[in-house]
Design brief:
The protein is mainly alpha-helical. 69% of the residues lie in helices and 2% in strands. It is built from 13 helices and 2 strands, in the order ααααααααααββααα. A two-stranded antiparallel sheet has the order 1-2. Helix 2 runs antiparallel to helix 4. The structure holds benzoyl coenzyme A.
Length: 317
């Protein structure tokens, strides 16, 4: 069969909502797009542990500490499912990690901002996990089977993360004047970077059109961003906090909130490695990788011992 015929059958299966599985034929560009997106997603989960991990030792109560610890551990788990999903496409985990540590790989822009107060932990859960869920619910229906299945559990866990963040914001907003100010300050700093998480506008997005044809993405960056804003405005009202956008206004005709201009220069600057914490995040990731070398060595030694014993048993039998 010619490549053209194979591509046609492939697209027909996508159009018929049949999931593509690891060992099936797929166009090279589909495989590459998935490895790119899934590995960037995995790196985001792993680097995403850093800004929140920063507050584990300073959580204001045992209950808050337990919830934050569980959340950060969940993010590690998400990273591992996603690296495994990328491996089903032929990527090597060691290569992916090397790309992250050498600064070649992208990860979400949002994790290059600092967490300066406890309210930032609330804002991250509410806004960052809220935006992540908006994006990832559509990915439970993505066309590549292993990625779609990994997303189901990830979304359930992200939903708990969003609630724990919103609950922190609720407690602070109903607290003292200083606590309310802290919550407002966190919203002021995280609002715009959260909107940037959805990626460049549809006009500027290089991959959206093809990814939607392949049903890797089911909604565009702008659609998801709008959906997120529409959902979050009411939540901010309930907290008694003000979204830092003077142009935010309900539009009766479109049934959406209109919003102000996003600073795309800031976004691209962060993506290129020049955000407030890019260098710090890479440094911390390298240190964590180096500190974990003994665990990898021990695991490998154990695996080698097991396979040697299994080989010995087969010989005896
Ligand atoms: N940051 O054509 P586009 C989480 C890049 S949540 C950095 O629209 P695509 C978590 C993009 O990679 C966060 N780079 O691309 C939550 C591309 O560059 P390359 C992670 C970005 O892929 C809480 C270029 O810009 N979520 O993990 O069609 C706690 C053009 O963009 C960003 C996911 O990764 C950005 N924000 O759409 C802990 C979800 N946006 O590759 C953890 C899965 C765009 O050509 N990913 N770029 O060099 C996706 O859904 C899509 O990849 C995106 C971008 C919507 C993010």
């Amino acid at each position: 069969m010619s490549t053209h015929d194979l591509e046609q059958i492939f697209q027909e299966r996508i159009d018929a909502e049949i999931k593509i599985e690891a060992k099936e034929w797929m166009p090279d560009a589909y495989r590459k797009t998935l490895i790119r997106q899934i590995s960037q997603h995995a790196h985001s989960e792993i680097v995403g542990m850093l800004p929140e991990g920063n507050w584990i030792t300073r959580a204001p109560s045992l209950r808050r500490k337990v919830a934050l610890l569980a959340k950060v551990q969940d993010e590690a788990g998400h990273g591992l499912y996603l690296y495994s999903a990328a491996e089903t496409l032929g990527a090597e985990r060691d290569d992916l990690i090397e790309q992250l540590l050498t600064g070649k790989a992208k990860y979400s822009s949002i994790f290059n901002y600092p967490t300066v107060s406890w309210a930032d932990i609330g804002a991250i859960g509410w806004l960052v996990d809220g935006a992540a869920i908006m994006n990832q619910v559509m990915l439970t229906r993505t066309s590549y089977g292993p990625y779609a299945r990994a997303m189901v559990r990830i979304c359930k866990e992200e939903s708990f993360h969003q609630r724990q963040g919103y609950e922190i914001m609720l407690a602070l907003s109903n607290g003292t004047e200083a606590q309310k100010n802290m919550a407002q300050d966190a919203l002021n700093r995280w609002w715009w970077p959260s909107l940037m998480m959805f990626g460049p506008s549809d006009k500027e997005s290089s991959h959206t059109e093809q990814s939607m044809r392949w049903k890797i993405k089911r909604k565009s960056n702008d659609e998801l961003r709008q959906q997120f804003i529409n959902q979050t405005v009411g939540q901010a009202d309930f907290l008694g906090l003000t979204i830092p956008d003077p142009d935010l206004k309900w539009n009766e005709a479109t049934g959406n909130y209109d919003f102000g201009a996003i600073d795309w220069e800031e976004f691209w600057n962060v993506v290129k490695g020049n955000g407030p914490c890019n260098k710090e995040r890479i440094r911390a990731s390298i240190k964590a990788h180096e500190d974990g070398a003994w665990v990898r060595e021990a695991a490998l030694a154990h695996a080698e011992k097991r396979s040697a014993r299994a080989a010995q048993k087969t010989q005896v039998a």
